[in-house]
Amino acid sequence: KQWYQRRVAITAGVIMSTYQSMGPIKEHIYKEKHVGGVTLKDVESQLWVTEFAKFLKKSGKLSLPKWHDIAKTATFKELPPQDQDWYYIRAAALLRRVYLRQGVGCGALRKIYGGRINRGSAPSHHKPASASVIRTALRGLEEMKLITKHPDGGRMITTAGRRDADRIASQVMSSRS
Predict the structure, then answer these.
(1) pLDDT tens for residues 124-167?
(2) Which residues contact 40 (CB under 8 A, 6 or more apart)?
(3) pTM of the full predicted structure?
(4) Are 134 and 74 contacting, i.e. CB atoms less than 8 angstroms apart?
(5) Which of 82, 84, 117, 138 has its CB surrounded by the most CB atoms within 10 Å?
């Protein structure tokens, strides 16, 4: 009976962790499940993306395209992004996606970052995101040696990219505690 109650508590903690951020149940599960260090999967995505974007900007290795201040992120958008650091944020989010799903390509990332186009009185449809933004961000991450081309197509994360991503994740986790 004791092992069953513990299993139910762990299952409830995993379900609750999707709705709560770093509650006591999730911390207990984290300590029980993880023997090694903190990975990207252990922290909230928004916190990690903002911290990694700051890291990319501070490193100065990710070159901004000339058109980054006038480009829209998709054809269904009316205006370009208002945040000055949007390109770094998009590059960090793309690195996170490649970390979580090896072999993802530009087409799949266009679907992920796509959205709904307003067609007036006609029903809305899904439109993919801008390929040039995604492609240039992926190329920039490749130049930084954070990702590389997958042998079967798409992109995969390098050991240096995984190391940097996990290092930023551990910094985010320690700042939350």
Answers:
(1) 999 999 999 999 999 999 999 999 999 999 999 999 999 999 99
(2) 48, 96, 99, 100, 165, 166, 168, 169
(3) 0.78
(4) no
(5) 138
